[in-house]
């Protein structure tokens, strides 16, 4: 019997117990043949010389050949890599070992394409004749899945390499927080910013939270919550983190969240940029602006000696130094100066004259800005006035008239080192110009 495709139909009398043993055996053989003929995998028998002796329907359908054509073909016709020598060695190996061999290869289809298959083959003898019986399974999907997995693994490897290169080459610190498990990652640079080696800080959440400045805690948590609640498109906040030595660094933290379909936050990944220097510059600029405003307000409506007194007192108070003075030359040879105003910490000192020799003021009155941030007494050991004042830092600027002549100088001193030199120098230059103009007006 045949089905609609011309294939043998399954006998319908297999369960007839009235059948003779011979008939049952015959039907069993038919069932076996039917099963092989209609097996979903390719099945073929090959003679010792490589000629096809039998092929099932799946062989024809899968490879695209008709059965008559295949039975005229040699195994090398569908496996072009097989040579006569290789086939004989392959056949003899299976014959001697009597073992089953499984391997992968490519079979050539009628349209010229190649089909990846897994072949399981075995040597058989029947009625004095030798055969190789082979079962072939199409592994196109498996091969495609394997290639896809290998490609994905390679892309992942390359991505990991790029990530590692980015971590090493980026001056920013990178962090990654799993919002569900609270697992964290902090890059070596993230830890280095705070003065730590990579192994010194664990990758856990409180490595970060425990180092946030108390004054910044509420701000940081509020901005983080707003972003994780999807109220802001990105996370950006400036705050302070405690370093290994106990100091604080200003950090610009920028991040992007990842949510599931229900809006539950899954991850927050971001970077840390050290903005301490920028914050310091901003603070210095703000301080300079405030200092200038206060000094200008204190001296705006004054002239003459009152101006000089207001000037040195305001300079000392705003710049937070103990002493400030303004002088003019006291003799034609310009070897001595007279103080026009001298703020001495909490009051004005009486006007006095002194020789310039062996003092830091000598260089100033030659037209040079003179700056000693610390240990000024060491540089001028013969200046007894410096010792009496306990001066450590000194900064002096000449007063110059409209013709370029030096008239005197403006200076500040402190019993502590002078650190914020850029601010002090800028402010002194501004008021040295005004003091010079006021002194020129009086002469």
Shape: rod-shaped
Please state how the strands of the largest beta sheet are arranged side by side.
13-12-11-16-15-14
What is the arithmetic mean of pLDDT? Answer: 87
* Beta fraction: 25-35%
Number of strands: 16
> Helical content, roughly?
25-40%
Which radius of gyration do the C-alpha atoms yield? 48 Å
Provide a count of the helices: 15
Structural class: alpha+beta
Terminal residue distance:
135 Å
> Which residues form runs of ≥5 with pLDDT under 50?
1-8
The major pleated sheet works out as: 6 strands, antiparallel
Looking at this protein, list some descriptive labels:
single chain; alpha+beta; about 450 residues; 16 strands; disordered N terminus; 15 helices; 5-stranded antiparallel β-sheet; rod-shaped
Describe this structure in words.
- The protein has helices spanning 21-37, 57-63, 67-70, 75-78, 84-97, 140-169, 188-193, 205-209, 217-228, 276-299, 304-319, 360-364, 376-379, 384-389, 421-442; strands at residues 42-46, 52-55, 100-108, 114-126, 129-138, 173-178, 184-186, 235-242, 248-259, 265-274, 323-329, 336-344, 353-355, 370-372, 393-400, 406-414.
- Strand 3 (100-108) and strand 4 (114-126) form a beta hairpin.
- The strands form 3 sheets. The protein has a 6-stranded antiparallel beta sheet.
- The N and C termini lie far apart (135 Å).
- The chain has 15 helices and 16 strands.
- Helix 10 runs antiparallel to helix 11, helix 10 runs parallel beside helix 15 (421-442) and helix 11 (304-319) runs antiparallel to helix 15.
- With 443 residues, the protein is of the alpha+beta class.
